[in-house]
Design goal:
Blueprint lengths: L1 H21 L1 H8 L1 E6 L2 E2 L3 E3 L6 E2 L1 H13 L2 E6 L5 H6 L5 E2 L14 E16 L14 E5 L3 H9 L4 E5 L2 H9 L5 E5 H10 L7 E3 L5 E9 L4 H17 L1 H9 L23
Parallel strand pairs: 1-5, 1-6, 8-9, 8-10
Antiparallel strand pairs: 2-3, 3-4, 6-12, 7-10, 7-11, 7-12
Helix pairs in contact: 3-8
Length: 275
């Protein structure tokens, strides 16, 4: 009899303990805020508006939509690229909206939402250089952001290149402008944005033809939080169905934006990626 009572008590304790940690949705609603980890140095995904000094951007708006669905206040926390997944794993942020590429290597570390953007990675060089395409970077200094898939992919593409990393992509771009490197690696959209901001000097640079990779971006969710992932994915599906997803694309990338990119070629409908 005592053994039965003891086993029942232990089972009850584990059940209560499991509930306490199993429902992230309830935890977020209880504290009344959703802490959104953003990169903050990658316009138009997330960046500081120079006029308002507030963090804005495509992924910031997505994070705010998730907070609205939860009925809580969005709290934005800026992270460097290398800190993104550790900050999520340690519970310092509830979700990542931080230019996070969904790849197989990261799947054991973090769960991913539906894909919210698809881009590619390329290399920018000065027109005055003798580099015609990516293989010509062999033995040359190339800069990019530390802890990013850009760093991984350029090392794979040109093993003999001298890779120098910085905490942020804008810092790496400055190094290219100062002649401290021959190439600068970033996602194609960010390269277009960076070149646009150069104004008249934009004609001094060009993007090499070769794609280093195709990058599906997604929101990052702590492993095992199935309920929270479902809420996030359901919210994204609702935004796709209502047209809100396309509106966000047009606002930040399309004809309503300064980038004026063509109509999007993807939808928020899957969390699957190619092998």
């Amino acid at each position: 009899m005592r053994r039965r009572v003891w086993l029942a008590a232990v089972s009850s304790l584990f059940a209560v303990s499991g509930l306490a940690h199993a429902d992230q949705v309830a935890d977020i609603q209880k504290k009344g805020e959703l802490v959104i980890g953003v990169y903050g140095s990658s316009e138009p995904f997330s960046f500081i508006d120079p006029k308002t000094r507030e963090m804005v951007g495509y992924e910031v708006d997505i994070g705010k939509a998730i907070a609205s669905k939860l009925g809580v206040k969005p709290v934005i926390k800026q992270l460097n690229l290398a800190a993104r997944i550790p900050e999520l794993q340690q519970g310092h942020v509830d979700i990542l909206a931080a230019a996070l590429t969904h790849n197989k290597e990261r799947e054991p570390l973090v769960d991913f939402s539906l894909t919210t953007y698809v881009t590619g990675q390329k290399v920018m060089v000065k027109k005055s250089s003798d580099v015609k395409d990516v293989p010509d970077l062999a033995g040359k200094r190339v800069v990019t952001a530390k802890g990013s898939t850009m760093e991984v992919n350029i090392r794979k593409a040109v093993p003999t290149a001298i890779i120098v990393t910085f905490d942020t992509s804008p810092q790496a771009f400055v190094a290219l402008q100062q002649g401290k490197a021959v190439g600068f690696v970033n996602d194609e959209i960010s390269l277009v944005q960076a070149n646009y901001e150069l104004g008249e000097r934009s004609n001094d640079y060009r993007v090499l033809p070769m794609n280093l990779s195709t990058e599906p971006l997604a929101l990052g969710i702590k492993k095992g939080e199935a309920g929270f992932k479902k809420l996030v994915d359901d919210t994204l599906r609702e935004m796709e169905a209502s047209g809100a997803a396309n509106d966000l694309y047009e606002k930040w990338f399309g004809q309503k934006s300064k980038l004026k990119l063509p109509a999007r070629s993807f939808k928020w409908d899957s969390d699957k990626i190619s092998e």
